[in-house]
Amino acid sequence: MWQNPQRGWFLAVNRFAEATPGLHAPIRMYAEYGVALFAALLLLAWWWARRDGDPATMAAALWAPLGTLMAVGLNQPLVNGFHEARPYTLFPHALTLVARSQDYSFPSDHAVMAGAVTMGVLLTNRRLGIVAAIAAAVMAFARVYVGAHFPLDVVVGLLFGAAVALLGWLAARPLLVAAVTGLSHTAVRPLLTTTPPDRAAR
Questions:
Q1: Can you say how many angstroms the Cα of residue 162 is from the centroid of all Cα atoms in its chain?
Q2: Percentage helix, strand, coil, to 5, in the chain?
Q3: Domains (ranges, CATH) in the chain?
């Protein structure tokens, strides 16, 4: 049901890519290496959680990368199960700005990663989460722009990644908060909070 519309959407974006050669280099670089930005956002979320001093906030910051790994891992059976061909397989003459991968297209691993990071960061810091959401939307567009995915590949990927991160957090939150609270009384305390022990005890 969705195949014909989304193929039309892909071709529309592909025509836009053909008409904007000046954007090829930056969008291709972001589509391939933008994962580094999401890693930086995870690091920033942890850093700000240390300053916050709230065990729940730090637990969310620690969950964010774990939830991302879980989402990407769970996505692999989906990718292999759906067997959706890449756009350049169906449209050999479409503009493709990245190397042509042999793996399947749906859902997009990059989008799953971006959606999971966004949710994890939102759970830690709302303002930083908004930045992550914008970065995730740009990543989703970039993966279609460079010809690596259909639109639904990235939309479903974003939603799946965010859902896994959120549901995992709801399930793991009590355990993670308890772990952070307990570890804050050990030698690893400086990794969890900048609040001095005597002030935290008051």
A1: 8
A2: 80, 0, 20
A3: 3-192 (1.20.144)
